[in-house]
Amino acid sequence: MRKRIIAAALAAMLALTAGCGKKEQITPTTESGIEAVKTEEELRDENELAEIENSEKITPDRVAALSRNAASMWKIAGGKIAAGVEEASGVPKNAVFGTENEPDIEAVLNFGADLVLIDTVSENYQDMISLLDMTEGAPPYLVVDIHRFDDYADSMLEMAKYTKDAAAYTTGVIDVRRKNAEVIASGQEALQVLIQTMPLPEGSLLPEADDESVMETPDQAKTDSAPDSVESHGAESGSDDPTASGAAESGTDDSTETQSTESALDSTAESYPADVEKVADKRESITVLLMRVDAEGCTIQGSHDYVSNMFADFGLINVNPGYEEVRVTLPKEEDDSSVKSDEKDDSRAADGEEAESSAESVEADSQTADSEVTESSAESGAAADSQTADSEVTESSAESGAAADSKTEDSQAADSKPAESKEAVGEEAGNSTDAKKEERPANEIEFETVLGRNPDYIFVIYEGKEREAEKTYKAICESREFWGDMTAVRNRHVYTLPQSTFAYPPNDQWDLAYEYLYQMMFVM
Q1: Could you tell me if 306 and 189 lie in one domain?
Q2: How is residue 138 annotated by DSSP?
Q3: Which of 14, 169, 360, 386 could form a disulfide with 160 if both were Cys (CB 3.0 to 4.6 A apart)?
Q4: 3-state secondary structure of 454
């Protein structure tokens, strides 16, 4: 009996121990918690796939893509394009309706599209939206607006709700997003190492327009300093002479203007960012400038550009942090036909003047000849009266001398006029040059201001025909006097990004684009 009790007790203990062991496996006592808990990224991916599978949207058969990028995204989402604009690839030849900037919306509606894809890269995309909203029975539309990868993912999710292709969404978005995160994390770590090795920026090449230390104008300097200076000078001299007082005021104005000029020169030595004292002996980050160039001009991109935001993901700072871009275009050449027309008009005018001059000369010669004949007749008729003839000759000589003196005076006056005219022309030319300098376009000044922030790296994307874009880049950027003094140029940190990857959003190749920037910034 005693043995049975002991055996039962041992069995109970074993059962209890076994139960405790199972409990520890289900809920391990670790700081990370339950192993079955998924990360936020995994939960987000599952929720997105569930939205696609549970979507009640009807899959369209006739999709019209009004941009190249929208057509590319729709194909990645598993759909097919039935109509679109010239830039969209894969559109049937008989269903091409205009271009990205000038699409034929009426033709799209007549085509019978059951879904329209609109892109904000189109200049008149808002007009397209308004027309579709006001047209009764118009098909639904999706607006693509890509400024970063998250925008791309959101638009792709909406498209996948139509196509119901969860596998395509996984390949085109979820897998790419995971690779992006890995490259971005590596870039952020590499940036910290680069910050420690790169020297501080050497300063702004140009004073910023909104800088408090910008030079005062001479008029401001006179207004602020003249009264005190005059009062002080009067007290020292003890004179009430207004002439002396005016002279003192003039002298003080010159010194004040000189001081303000010196302070302005000192302000140009400030480095970017302006509060360098807070940076001390170490950097906060690396600055970059992104520029898109076409055959007509150069555009410095702001924070709206998806490539700018890729740099921001790594932790780099854009020297043009605002949303707005800054564009400068090549000066337009004059029309040759108008120039030739002006030359013809000038030539005709010159010919007319010469003809008039010839006519006047002939008339003058004719009058002179008539006068000589008359005088000759008079002289022959009065040959007997020699004294009278001698008197006339003497008077004629006197008149000839007076005429010669008169011509000499006219000649001297004529010589003096061109000199005065040349001086006037010189002054006008100087004033014209100064006026041109003062009347520079605001975008030109802003363009140089951004360049003057002296970025560590400059990245250029050629759009359209690359050779023509490269010529424009050299004409607008490399021709500037201070271009060679910029930190990025001196350190050979000016790079051209491949058009095939960065001219348009990289879509399902975002991970490759991030990898390219990572290699260029932190490895090469």
Answers
A1: yes
A2: P
A3: 169
A4: coil
Single out the residue of 452, 442, 443, 445 nearest to residue 274, CA to CA.
Answer: 452
Residue with more model confidence, 359 or 68: 68
CA distance 340 to 434: 30
% the chain with pLDDT above 70: 57
- 3-class SS of residue 11: helix
Instruction: Based on the fold, state whether residues 74 and 160 are members of the same structural domain.
Output: yes
Beta bridge partners of 103: 98
Tell me how far apart the alpha carbons of residues 303 and 310 are, in angstroms, rounded to a whole number. Answer: 10
**Are 289 and 195 found together in one domain?**
yes
Spatial contact of 160 and 495, defined as CB atoms under 8 Å apart = no
Cα–Cα distance for residue pair 298/468, rounded to 1 Å: 12
**Between 21 and 430, the higher pLDDT residue:** 430
CATH of residue 154: 3.40.50.1980
Beta bridge partners of 84: 65, 96
Q: CA-based angle 357:363:368, to the nearest 5? A: 125
Residues spanned by the domain of 258: 218-267
- Whether the pTM exceeds 0.70: the reply is no
Peptide bond into 273 cis (omega under 30): yes
For 355-378, the pLDDT digits (tens) are 454 444 444 454 444 444 344 443
465 shares its domain with 503: yes
Token pair 């405790």 is at which residue? 20
Question: Quick check: is 302 in a domain?
Answer: yes
The two tokens of residue 411 are 């000649």
| Contact criterion met (CB below 8 Å) for 63 and 80 | yes
Helix (H, G, I), strand (E, B) or coil at 221: helix
How many domains does the structure of the chain reveal?
A: 3
Say if residue 403's pLDDT is above 70: no
Question: What are the pLDDT digits (tens) for 134-187?
Answer: 999 999 999 999 999 999 999 999 999 999 999 999 999 999 999 999 999 999
User: Which of 235, 233, 265 minimizes the C-alpha distance to 252?
Assistant: 233
